[in-house]
């Protein structure tokens, strides 16, 4: 439980900072920056909870709100030096989507949904904050255009059900799926792999 | 019931393919294409169900998900030949919005809402998937700018209550409203009619 | 209660007209104009109610719908003369966000949420309709870029809790918070004050 909380907070920090950086490129004011940091961090989980009709987590857990505010302040003040932190941020973000994917899948399982829908929920939890960020910043969502990002989440979701199929303890299922998301994302970024371009495949 | 299911699936197919075509024009990757196909098909109904606070249909009915995946694969593979299917696609789309309109109106009636709200729900069910598609593709929604599309849904909704007023059997109400949406849309496209341009009217 | 209803209707009128004007600049058709007027007026409150999982107000209260339709018709017909009404519209809008802020804060309190979340809900109620309007019109939301707008709502929300802290009667808390929002917004616009530009502060 403690490890999950720490990963969750690391993910929120990474997502908040990515929101701050995107919104500052668009010359938003202080309020806009904070809102973009907020929706990037909690947007995916909020959509997931609204669709499942369960209570939205950040309404009652203030840890999220304080973390987002602190991370945003940090990002605004130290924005010129954030390049030094680039690798840490990328790592936080990768841990974050790994965690969000598994948490999303488990929320779907709790609601007794079909595995495919659960995997979709995991992917949504991990990716949709970034989609809302890009919509608010008036850009086509970056995850629709490049990078192995959502794909890592989808494969992590499949891994979850593949491992669970063998009746292994839930902690192993959790760690297995989490590791698959994180590994695929790391390998994809380090070796600059992206999805095959279907435009080239068929043209 | 069987006829409704078939119409529904035809509508989902048409909406998925329109999502695929729009997203491919934006050079999205495979994941982006699938997501756009998905939100175009189920976005309107999802917003409707969230506002009504009833369970979201595609969470538990896998037919939607399988149809969307199959239709998207088909559209990507045969995208160069889709012009041959253009008329079929337009027909599917027209049947789809006719059906979605009536289903949306009836969901509003079940929730005991005012007829105007019910008509708004019918229109939203039919049109909002396309609105989300256009937002995600960073365009001003096409239905806000041209074509008799939402207008056909609105008039179909009025027809529903007009016929229901005479205590006719529900199947006749259903078919009457459905036919009005489909006929208006067909006539508008065949004769290239669009809403009067209020900018010209008043300038 | 009567005063609140009047303020609410004035707010809906102002928001509808601002939606009409934005959508006409984008050359939308009659349907698009009406939809933009609608989401600008009720979008913030709808998001708030969906997140709180309480019934959405305009589904059952037709006053909103009739007011939006009437205000939109008015705005389309008299759009060339709306400059004469500019000051009234600005005043309506200011009264509207003041009211929406306080109502949003109180809805959060009723759901027993943390004060910071309540203030966020007040700000969201007041500002999010304009955000959705700008997304649908394919622009970066104006409140993220300039003007003391959301900031007035946030400070009004803090005022609410500051006054409530002294156990004053709820009507005084209401009027105090409302006045702070309205005053800050009036002062900011009259003296052309905006948030300090953090890009200049740190560059």
Counted up, domains of chain A total 1
Using DSSP, what is the number of strands of chain A?
Answer: 0
Oligomer: homotrimer
- Rg of Cα set of chain A: 17 Å
Pfam family, one (chains A, B, C): Gly_transporter
InterPro entries (chains A, B, C): Gly_transporter
Membrane topology (chains A, B, C): Multi-pass membrane protein
Domain Glycine transporter (chains A, B, C): 6-79, 91-164
Quick recap:
Chains A, B, C: Residues 6-79, 91-164 form the Glycine transporter domain. Chain A is mostly helical and 203 residues long.
What does this molecule look like?
Three copies of one chain form a homotrimer. Chain A is 76% helix and 0% strand. Chain A is globular. Chain A has one domain (2-202). In chain A, helix 6 (115-136) packs antiparallel against helix 7 (150-164) and helix 7 (150-164) packs antiparallel against helix 8 (170-190). Chain A is an all-alpha fold and 203 residues long. Chain A has helices at 2-25, 30-52, 57-60, 62-77, 86-110, 115-136, 150-164, 170-190, 198-202.
């Amino acid at each position: 439980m403690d490890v999950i909380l720490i990963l969750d907070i690391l993910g929120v920090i990474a997502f908040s900072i990515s929101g701050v950086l995107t919104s500052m490129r668009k010359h938003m004011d202080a309020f806009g920056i904070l809102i973009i940091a907020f929706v990037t961090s909690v947007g995916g989980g909020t959509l997931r909870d609204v669709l499942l009709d369960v209570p939205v987590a950040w309404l009652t857990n203030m840890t999220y709100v304080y973390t987002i505010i602190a991370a945003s302040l940090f990002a605004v003040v130290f924005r010129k030096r954030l390049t030094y932190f680039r690798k840490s941020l990328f790592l936080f973000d990768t841990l974050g989507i790994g965690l969000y994917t598994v948490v999303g899948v488990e929320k779907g399982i709790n609601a007794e949904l079909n595995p495919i829908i659960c995997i979709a929920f995991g992917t949504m939890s991990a990716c949709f904050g970034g989609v809302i960020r890009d919509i608010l910043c008036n850009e086509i969502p970056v995850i629709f255009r490049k990078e192995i990002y959502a794909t890592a989440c989808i494969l992590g979701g499949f891994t979850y059900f593949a491992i669970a199929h063998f009746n292994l303890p839930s902690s192993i299922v959790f760690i297995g799926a989490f590791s698959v998301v994180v590994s695929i994302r790391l390998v994809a970024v380090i070796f600059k792999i992206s999805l095959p371009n279907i435009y080239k495949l068929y043209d």
